[in-house]
Amino acid sequence: MSVELETSEGLDEPEKKISGVPEQNNHTRMADLSELLKEGTKESHDRAENTQFVKDFLKGNIRKELFKLATTALYFTYSALEEEIDRNKDHPAFAPLYFPMELHRKKALIRDMEYLYGEHWEEQAKCSEATRKYVERIHEVGQNEPELLVAHAYTRYMGDLSGGQVLKKVAQRALKLPSTGEGTQFYLFENVDNAQQFKQLYRARMNALDLNLETKEKIVEEANKAFEFNMQVFNELDQAGSLLAKETLEDGLPAHDGLPTHSRLPTQDGLPVHDGKGDVRKCPYYAAQLDKGALEGSSCPFGAALAMLRRPSLQFLLAASVALAAGLLAWYSM
C-alpha cells in the first residue's frame, strides 16, 4: 500500500476535502493513458461503430474472396506495425509494451495467406490505396516519433484480444472455414492464456510509461488519426459504391448470381439472390423504384454489382474496408 493511500485513509472526511486527496487521486486516474485514450476516442468510436461494415461483418455478410483480400490488408498493416515495434523495442517510451511472443500477428497472417491463396500468395498480395496511407503513417511514426507508436499498438492489439474470438467464429461460420483454425490463425493468440488478464497487464504497463501529459495527449490524437485512416477506407468504398451504381445504370451490365443484401430473398449457397425470375417485386431494387414511380426503363443492379465487384480494383478497396472494420469491431468489444 502506498504512502499516499495510507495518508488518505488516515484522514476524517472533512480533512479529506480540505487536503484535496480525493481530487488528486481522481486527477491521477484521469491522467492514466488508458483513461485518456478511452475518453479521448469516444467520438471516433461512435462514428465508426455506426458503419455498415461493422454490422455486416458481425452478421457474417462477407464473401470468401473479400475475406481473402481483407486478410491481405491485415498482412500489410501488421507487417508495418511490427517492423516499427521491433525497431523501437528498446525505446523507453515503448519497451515495456514489447510482447512479440504474445501479440505479434505477422507470422499468423502468413499462415492464413498461404491457406487462402496457396503457395504463391506473395505474388497476389497487393495493398489498397487507403491501407498504403495507413502503413506509411505507421512507418513515419516509428521512425520519427516512437512514443506515438503506442497509439497504434494499443488500438490494434487490445482490440484483437477483445473481439478476436467472436470474429473468428463469425468468419468460420459464414465462410465454412475449418474449425481447426486454418484461415483464421490471425485471431488465435496461442501464448495468451487469459486475454482479460493480459489486457490489464498491458494497460498497467502503458499507464506506467514515463510520459508527460502533453505526450499523452499526442498519443490520444494519434489514436484518433488511426480511426480517421479507417474512415478514409470507408469513404473510399463509398466512392466505389457510387461509381458502381452509376456504371451499372449506364452500362446495363448483365445480372450475375448472388450478392448479399439486407432483404429476405431466395438464397444460393447461403446468399440472397435475384435472378430475374419469379415475382419481380421481391427484388429490393424494383420495389424501391416502384415506390418512386421510376421503374420503367431501369434494370436491377444487384447481379450486375457482383460482376463489378469481380474487378480487382474494387476488390482491393472492399478488402481494406472489411479488414479495418474487423479491427474496429474488436475495439468495441473491449
From TrEMBL:
**Enzyme class (EC, first level):** oxidoreductase
Entry keywords, A to Z: Heme, Iron, Membrane, Metal-binding, Oxidoreductase, Repeat, Transmembrane, Transmembrane helix
Which CDD domains does the protein's record reference? HemeO
In the record, biological process GO terms are: heme catabolic process; heme oxidation; host-mediated suppression of viral transcription; negative regulation of viral life cycle; response to oxidative stress
- Coiled-coil features, chain-numbered ranges: none
The keyword DNA-binding is assigned to this record: no
Q: Which domain of life is it from?
A: Eukaryota
Residues of the region (Disordered) are: 1-29
EC number of the protein: 1.14.14.18
Give the Pfam families listed for this entry.
Heme_oxygenase
Give the stretches traversing the membrane: 316-333
Q: Does the keyword Chaperone apply?
A: no
Record field: compositional bias (Acidic residues): 1-12
Q: Which GO molecular function terms does the record list? A: heme binding; heme oxygenase (decyclizing) activity; metal ion binding
**Task of the protein:** Catalyzes the oxidative cleavage of heme at the alpha-methene bridge carbon, released as carbon monoxide (CO), to generate biliverdin IXalpha, while releasing the central heme iron chelate as ferrous iron. Affords protection against programmed cell death and this cytoprotective effect relies on its ability to catabolize free heme and prevent it from sensitizing cells to undergo apoptosis.
Q: Which PANTHER family does the record match to this protein? A: HEME OXYGENASE, HEME OXYGENASE 2
Q: How does it assemble?
A: Homodimer and higher order homooligomer. Oligomerization is crucial for its stability and function in the endoplasmic reticulum. Interacts with FLVCR2; this interaction is potentiated in the presence of heme.
Report the family membership.
Belongs to the heme oxygenase family.
Under which name does UniProt file this protein?
Heme oxygenase 1
